Amino acid sequence: MTLRRRSPLRPSRGTQVPASVRAEVRERDGGCAGQRIGWPGDHRTALQLDHVRASGALGVKSRSTADNAVMLCLECHDWKTSHGREARPQLIEWIERRANQ
Length: 101
Fold this sequence. Notes:
Blueprint: H1 19-29, H2 33-37, E1 47-51, E2 69-73, H3 74-82, H4 84-99
Antiparallel strand pairs: 1-2
């Protein structure tokens, strides 16, 4: 059985994060949030902006806002991906704690 799509798939736009959100998160975190939380690793790899909460649906991206993003080194990003159920609550707490300072 062959399934056919009537129209071609649209190319992905990738994750769109406003420059103001990127700057706010960079300022708030001051480096790798995973390192500040105490996650394992050397934390010497490049930093990248990462969404904290899962999208909840296939093909739907979670919101790109400062309360849903952190700066993580590549090691911590990989650790978060592998330990999401443990990592996400820690990151949400980190964001809330930093927002209330």
